[in-house]
Amino acid sequence: MRILIEEWDGDGAIRIPDEALQELELDVGDSLYLIEEFVGNTRCLVLSKKPQIADRIGELTEAWNSEQRGSLEDK
């Protein structure tokens, strides 16, 4: 979802659309973190309910290993 940076009293502000709040299951007064992450080679800002995004290298390694086992069994 694309969100536009607006001006608010001379500062940059981000208005989060209602549909984004509903998708994240957030309500007024909830805490939200803005985290800098890379998606592929692109630097992005990610909204999160947690202060840190979990490292998923274990999941990626497990998926790669299962693919490798599958191709060895096919031979």
UniProtKB/TrEMBL annotation:
GO terms for molecular function: DNA binding. It comes from the Bacteria. InterPro entries: SpoVT-AbrB_sf. Keywords: DNA-binding. This is AbrB/MazE/SpoVT family DNA-binding domain-containing protein.
